Amino acid sequence: MTYRLGVDVGGTFTDILLVDESSGETYRAKTPSTPHDQSVGVLRGIMQACAAADIGLDQVGDVMHGTTIATNAILEGKGARVGLVTTRGFRQVLQIARSFVPGGLAGWIIWPKPEPLAALEDTVEVGGRIASDGTVVEDLDEDDVRAALDKLAAQGVEALSISLINSYANPEHERRVAKVAQEVLGGLTVSVSSSVLPELREYERTLTTVANAYVQPRVARYTANLSEQLTESGVGGKLYILRSDGGLASAATAADNPVSLLLSGPAGGVSGAAWVAEQAGFSDFLTFDMGGTSTDVALVQDRVPRIGRETKVGDLTVRATSVDVRTVGAGGGSIAHVPPLTQALRVGPQSAGAVPGPAAYGQGGVEPTVTDANVVLGYLPTSLAGGEVTLDRAAAAAAVQTIVDATDLGSVEEAAEGIIDIVNENMLGALRLVSVQQGFDPRDFALVAFGGAGPLHANALGRLTGAWPVIIPPSPGVLCAYGDATTSMRDEAVRTLMRPFSSLDDDALRDQLVELADDARASLIRDGLSESDLTVTYAADLRYHGQGFEIPVAIDASAFDGNGGGLASLREAFDAEHERLFSFLLGNEHEIVTVRATASGPRPAVAAPVLASGDADSSGALVGTESIWVDGGAVDAGLYQRDQLLAGNVVTGPAVITEMDSTTLVLPGHAATVHPSGSLLIRPIDQSAADGAEG
Fold first, then answer.
1. Do 662 and 559 lie in a common domain?
2. Residue 693 — very low, low, confident or very high, per pLDDT cuts 50/70/90?
3. Closest CA to 30 of 9, 47, 10, 15
4. Residue 30 within a domain
């Protein structure tokens, strides 16, 4: 038998999912994350999953890993000291930046401008100039380059970024600087903008290249260390890292371009949600991933996640393709507090994290968290992660009591319910960002909820958004790892054109797409994939002439078949997207700014699990009753064991459904139907019992 292994490292837990490719059977492990060295938690979890499957590590094939190593380096400010080489006259490109301050009026008063990732004293200028059409205006001064690099070496930079003006149009000068850098700086990692982001806009290209250099040494060390440890442990397969766009890259490719990994973790959840929604027969859905530290949401249409051209982590926004995921600081570990000035209850974004964790974990935490509120309300059992984590209800109640003492709430249950209501509203705001704000009605979508805490809040979020059914996947706490294990390898190539449609024809654009497709396939072929197994999709960033922003639009390659309909179809697609986003069209000429080709390998042949059939009676999975607090009062809820449920069973709320890695709350007036694929489909009881889109 062949096994695939998905790994997802979160802020609180590391999730492992071992998948038998022939049967679809899965084996799970959830272990506390080890922030000091993520590989420790990863290897511990792999051993636990293999023990559960009763196999040796030598039977594990490829390892697919969603990682937060690059994200954490940005958020914690623990990246490398970066040297930056620019064209003479552009030394302050990062300091000038863009004239934008986030937030409302107060932002202009109190917003501290973040320090650039490459300090001004570590930024040097060199002589030489490329024009916007790629012609050489001034030859590169290699003596100047050597002197500048010698200065950076003396200052102790740990990584080098090279971003010269207009290098997207002609990378010759940048490549020569990189070659000299190898001689002067030895084995220092070098990021070259014409490779990292060959697009116009000097600031965005430089910022993205510097960010790549900032995290590159840390990512390279981590992937090399983990690969070595996997090999020493007997794992024979290769290590692959999940990209921000939901595709996989080999460990070596990921280490060369780590800026593409900044949303690696959340992208795994979206990929996993697409897998389970497909099994349940749904193509349009919102994803809701609530973990210990934060909540990530995204929108998927026709089983394809919406892809953005920017990746935002903290205060940093870089130009890198990623799943359009929005994050809020609302998780199981989010801390509830009452600011003295307002005396109003707040939840997050501060988090208790993995250490010390919620008070209920008994590891020294004393501040009230969302997890503590769920424990007080009776939604959580006294053990999590298959018994690895035991909850202390008395400690949780003591923590939430501090909220009662600081407010006029009458009981610890009322305070806990207030915490849950507030965190649910915070997460509703994030869901509206990816739906209503983008022109989509959430009532037209299902809601796939996962993560360790997602199923606890999913029914409430369905009630707030009107998105039905709410889909709770099998193993919701490790769905990100499932997404890692069931996605395909991917790479992309991009080129800036800056051409009005009047100066293009179908043949010229088709030739550009063919060249980009060859570039996108190249790395995947080097990693061992067959060219015949690769598929290529195309997209373009378009705008009306005179606009200062672009909109990404998919290119229908079949329209460029020689009949002259290619540009016309692209114009029509852009107009439709512009009207959906802004409700108006312009008569200006259309302009193509950037085109890209994305090559993808085949999806792994992982069999979908199928549950044994039953009827609507779910009493065989009922293990008892539990008093829970819902909508202002105590009610008795059925307590169900999820692995005892059969396809077709219906669990009527109020109910709590427990499993190894997560807990699902079914509210009064709602019912969860068990789909043959293993997902729970929660709907209001007064809705039709028909399965609708289920397959």
1. no
2. very low
3. 15
4. no
